[in-house]
Amino acid sequence: MLISFGDLKKSEKDLIWALIHDPGNAMAALDTLDGDDLQDLQGREIFEVARSLHCEPAALPAVLLERLSDTKAQIVREIATNPGAPPFPPRQCAEALKRQRLERQRSAIKQQIDRLQALGAAEHSMEIDHLSEQLLSVAIRLDRDVTGARD
After folding, report:
1. Suppose 20 and one of 11, 51, 80, 112 were both cysteines; which one would form an S-S bond, judging by CB atoms 3.0 to 4.6 Å apart?
2. What residue ranges in the chain does DSSP mark as E strands?
3. What residues does each domain of the chain span?
4. Listed residue (99, 26, 127) closest to 107, CA to CA
5. CA–CA dist 146, 33 (Å, integer)
6. What are the tens digits of pLDDT across the range 43-79?
7. Cβ(51)–Cβ(43) below 8 Å
8. d(CA 102, CA 138)
C-alpha cells in the first residue's frame, strides 16, 4: 500500500523526523516499541527498517534512506525537511504510539462485546465477561499512561 506524507499521524512524522535529526534518541524510543505498537501504522515499514539497522547513530540517516524504497525514502526526506511545528521528543512519540495501540485494542474489544450482546448476551455471557476483563485491563493501562501512576 502506498502511503503519503499526509497519511502519517503526527507522532509518526515526529519520530521519522527524529530518525534523521536525533537518531540516537529516536532509536532508543523505537526500542521501547513492540510489533503490536507498530501494527496498523502507516510508517510501520520505515520504523521496521530503522529497527533492523545495527549502525552508529550518526550513520543511521544515510543507511536508512539507502535501505528504504524510493517512495518511502522520499517521504522521510519530506518529513526531515518540513519546517512545520516543532516535533515532540522521540520518547513522547513512542508513548503516543503505544497509547494509540491501546486505544485501537479498546475499540476492537468494545466492538466484539457489542457484537456478542447483539447475538444474545445470555448465550455469550462467558465470552462477554472475558472480553470485559480484557477491556478493563486495557483501560487501566491507558489510565496509567495518562496519569503516570504505577503499582
Report:
1. 80
2. none
3. 8-90, 93-147
4. 99
5. 17
6. 999 999 999 998 899 999 999 999 999 999 999 999 9
7. no
8. 6
Distances in Å between the Cα of 72 and the Cα atoms of 4, 20, 83, 147 are: 9, 14, 19, 36
Considering just the CA atoms, what is the radius of gyration of the chain in Å? 19
Cα–Cα dist 57/28, whole Å: 10
What does the alpha-carbon distance between residue 32 and residue 93 come to, in Å, rounded to a whole number? 11
Half-sphere exposure of 126 (CA within 13 A, CB side): 1
Take residue 48 and report the three cell numbers written for it: 521496521
Q: With CA atoms as reference, report the closest residue to 147 among 95, 109, 94.
A: 95
Please report which confidence band the pLDDT of residue 1 belongs to, taking 50, 70 and 90 as the band edges: very low
CB 37 within 8 A of CB 44: no
What is each CA distance from 144 to 99, 133, 138, in whole angstroms?
A: 10, 17, 10
**In angstroms, what CA-CA distances link 123 with 110, 116, 118, 129?**
18, 9, 11, 12
